[in-house]
């Protein structure tokens, strides 16, 4: 058999009429007899080549960016698993509610990753080349969105607790953050429900209701991240004192706060922009799958960073030596004795704010212990 022309064709497996025509008509087959041997040649019409080109273009535009997003999400899940393992190794004495929360977040991330992979497998393997299927919203996509919403809710609850402690139980500030976190949860649930009531991507992208719920939900998440970071930085700056080492520790905590909040905020804004502008692509959904992984990792990173912060300042030459190696008379001339006791308690206090030293710590110490 020899093929006329240099182009090849990947024929859609579900197009039965195309296959029948391919086999039975002489438009494709040209049978000849050469020296007693039967041979035939195949000519590929331009229409068939156009079908392949169109199909591959749809796959690239619709599924390419989504597949990349899911790949990145799977990598981030590996980071989440590693951080979860590190947490239980480094902080076995943490309160049971906090350890339970970490476990629940990891379990939800595991289920979320499984459904992400199943969602991608259906589109790019099982129904590859099926334009009708690629235009439909597969049910597991809504499950991934729903799981991401609950993961975000868990992390936002942790952030709200931070704000409550650091702001000295400020009801207005805590209520403001809680309001936008509730918006993220409520509008996210609405988006997930609409993914089942609207069966096709084209219809889902063209209607106003999904645009409103996605923009309000993801936008609310971005506002929560910005508010939490701004609130923590504001109250930490107010807590600065005359101790250089303590100020350095506060500065390091502020850097961690800004970095974790900035990443999730940027991804949230990009999700809204891509959903509103890239109507023929599922790139926004790839970022949505990544977003839940970023929230889980920021939550675990803030917990695991406690030991790093302690080690960083415990190994410094100006954090403890000013207390341990200075003479008694010199130390008394610079700092009153009661302040020395409070300062040492801050060093050994549990960062979750659950130890017995809380009642003896100053307001500044409680703010620092409530951060992580």
TrEMBL record:
<keyword id="KW-0472">Membrane</keyword>
<keyword id="KW-0812">Transmembrane</keyword>
<feature type="transmembrane region" description="Helical">
    <location>
        <begin position="137"/>
        <end position="159"/>
    </location>
</feature>
<feature type="region of interest" description="Disordered">
    <location>
        <begin position="352"/>
        <end position="372"/>
    </location>
</feature>
<feature type="transmembrane region" description="Helical">
    <location>
        <begin position="256"/>
        <end position="276"/>
    </location>
</feature>
<dbReference type="InterPro" id="IPR045339">
    <property type="entry name" value="DUF6534"/>
</dbReference>
<dbReference type="Pfam" id="PF20152">
    <property type="entry name" value="DUF6534"/>
</dbReference>
<keyword id="KW-1133">Transmembrane helix</keyword>
<feature type="domain" description="DUF6534">
    <location>
        <begin position="221"/>
        <end position="308"/>
    </location>
</feature>
<feature type="transmembrane region" description="Helical">
    <location>
        <begin position="171"/>
        <end position="194"/>
    </location>
</feature>
<feature type="compositionally biased region" description="Basic and acidic residues">
    <location>
        <begin position="363"/>
        <end position="372"/>
    </location>
</feature>
<feature type="transmembrane region" description="Helical">
    <location>
        <begin position="214"/>
        <end position="236"/>
    </location>
</feature>
<protein>
    <recommendedName>
        <fullName>DUF6534 domain-containing protein</fullName>
    </recommendedName>
</protein>
<feature type="transmembrane region" description="Helical">
    <location>
        <begin position="66"/>
        <end position="88"/>
    </location>
</feature>
């Amino acid at each position: 058999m020899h093929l006329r022309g240099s182009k090849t064709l990947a024929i859609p497996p579900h197009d039965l009429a195309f296959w029948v025509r391919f086999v039975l008509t002489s438009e494709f087959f040209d049978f000849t007899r050469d020296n007693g041997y039967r041979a035939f040649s195949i000519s590929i019409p331009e229409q068939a080549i156009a079908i392949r080109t169109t199909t591959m273009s749809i796959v690239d535009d619709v599924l390419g960016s989504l597949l990349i997003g899911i790949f990145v999400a799977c990598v981030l899940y590996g980071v989440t698993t590693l951080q979860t393992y590190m947490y239980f190794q480094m902080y076995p004495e943490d309160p049971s509610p906090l350890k339970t929360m970490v476990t629940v977040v990891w379990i939800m991330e595991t289920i979320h990753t499984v459904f992400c992979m199943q969602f991608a497998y259906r589109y790019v393997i099982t129904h590859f080349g099926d334009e009708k299927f690629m235009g439909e919203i597969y049910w597991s996509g809504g499950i991934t969105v729903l799981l991401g919403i609950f993961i975000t809710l868990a992390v936002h609850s942790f952030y709200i607790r931070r704000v409550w402690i650091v702001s000295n139980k400020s009801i207005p500030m805590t209520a403001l953050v809680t309001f936008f976190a509730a918006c993220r949860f409520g509008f996210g649930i609405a988006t997930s429900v609409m993914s089942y009531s609207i069966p096709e991507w084209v219809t889902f992208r063209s209607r106003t209701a999904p645009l409103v719920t996605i923009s309000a939900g993801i936008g609310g998440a971005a506002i929560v991240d910005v508010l939490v970071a701004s609130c923590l930085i504001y109250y930490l700056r107010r807590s600065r004192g005359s101790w250089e080492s303590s100020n350095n520790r506060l500065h390091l905590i502020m850097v961690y706060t800004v970095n974790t909040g900035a990443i999730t905020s940027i991804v949230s804004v990009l999700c809204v922009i891509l959903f509103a502008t890239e109507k023929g692509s599922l790139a926004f959904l790839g970022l949505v799958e990544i977003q839940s992984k970023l929230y889980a990792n920021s939550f675990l990173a803030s917990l695991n960073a406690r030991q790093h912060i302690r080690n960083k300042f415990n190994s410094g030459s100006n954090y403890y030596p000013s207390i341990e190696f200075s003479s008694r008379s010199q130390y008394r001339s610079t700092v009153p004795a009661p302040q020395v006791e409070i300062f040492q308690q801050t060093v050994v206090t549990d960062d979750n704010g659950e130890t017995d030293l809380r009642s003896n710590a100053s307001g500044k110490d409680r703010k620092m212990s409530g951060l992580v």
